[in-house]
Amino acid sequence: MHILGIETSCDETGVAIYHTQKGLLAHRLYSQIRTHAEYGGVVPELASRDHIKKLVPLIRQVIADANISKRQIDGVAYTAGPGLVGALLVGAAVARSLAWTLGVPSIGVHHMEGHLLAPLMEPDPPRFPFVALLVSGGHTQLIEVEGIGHYRILGESLDDAAGEAFDKTAKMLDLGYPGGPAIAELAEEGDVQRFEFPRPMTDRPGLDFSFSGLKTHTLLTFASTAKTRQDKADIAKAFQEAVVDTLVIKCRRALKKTRLTRLVVAGGVSANRSMRDKLRRMAREESFQVYFPRLEFCGDNGAMIAFAGCQRLLAGQTEPPEISAFPRWPL
Ligand code: KG4
Ligand code: ZN
């Protein structure tokens, strides 16, 4: 079965074709970063317009890359939410129209389920059950995963998502958008000894997170420095390590609480090198296994949507004929 996957929830147009036996055949990604950079963040209306321009040409290219004809597509998966409603509706309308003209089923996929399942596309994928840490621009969640569609939220952020905290801190330090990679890069030059930032909510039981206090702490620290490149690097380092340590502490706690031994980490922030290193170290110490998507599938992409949609279609799931999108949608 060939499944076409379409991702348009935010500022990346992602398209891919996943084959049930052969795996991922083709994938392409168009990033709108340059369109939004001058505004310091994503402008929803510009995002929708750009998806309209790029989506159909990308679908054509991916079908050619996979060396198949459109008649060989057996199903179309698209991100139905959560995300920007205009951007989501572009993907939903194109996906469902295409499925209808080809006479094949379509399936709306939860964006975070796409992230969650992305590590399963790698060689040597994790077996169920496992604990998943989803860390993106909109979500920070610990989830107990028993199988496809069987998810129990163990904890989540009570305010900012981890990626959002990276983005806001980067803005504060004048590092531009998107903030996560900019903070991570500058943190390489930072002195970890200079500032000690708090690890929020780690001194009490539970698996929820809170990152907004850390953001304020960063702001106050920044206000009291000379704002040289070295000052910014030291703050970026202190901030990053505080977020990473907090995530590592809660992952260890979630694994112990559930008595599970496999940890899956996904979403844009899972590209962070310090986080990958520290989670691997924790896993070694505790004899856990940790799984990440390859770097290009940490952020938004069409491959994860094709893969997740494929699992849903294989399970016999279909959807009603009306086109809908969910700007907010609990997993
Ligand atoms: O999953 P994603 O691409 O989109 C959402 O679903 O939100 O995640 C984007 C988030 C942004 O907040 C971005 O700053 C963050 O992931 N991010 C990073 C890194 N790369 C991307 N955060 C920390 N370190 C990184 N290397
Ligand atoms: Zn995402």
Automatic annotation (TrEMBL):
HAMAP family: TsaD
Protein name (record): tRNA N6-adenosine threonylcarbamoyltransferase
Known function: Required for the formation of a threonylcarbamoyl group on adenosine at position 37 (t(6)A37) in tRNAs that read codons beginning with adenine. Is involved in the transfer of the threonylcarbamoyl moiety of threonylcarbamoyl-AMP (TC-AMP) to the N6 group of A37, together with TsaE and TsaB. TsaD likely plays a direct catalytic role in this reaction.
Example of a GO MF term: tRNA N(6)-L-threonylcarbamoyladenine synthase activity
Cofactor(s) needed for function: Fe(2+)
Compartment annotation: Cytoplasm
Entry annotated with the keyword Transport: no
Gene: tsaD
Cofactor note: Binds 1 Fe(2+) ion per subunit.
Reaction catalysis annotation: L-threonylcarbamoyladenylate + adenosine(37) in tRNA = N(6)-L-threonylcarbamoyladenosine(37) in tRNA + AMP + H(+)
Binding site for Fe cation: H111, H115, D300
Family: Belongs to the KAE1 / TsaD family.
Matches recorded under Pfam families: TsaD (PF00814)
Keyword Repressor: no
Domain of life: Bacteria
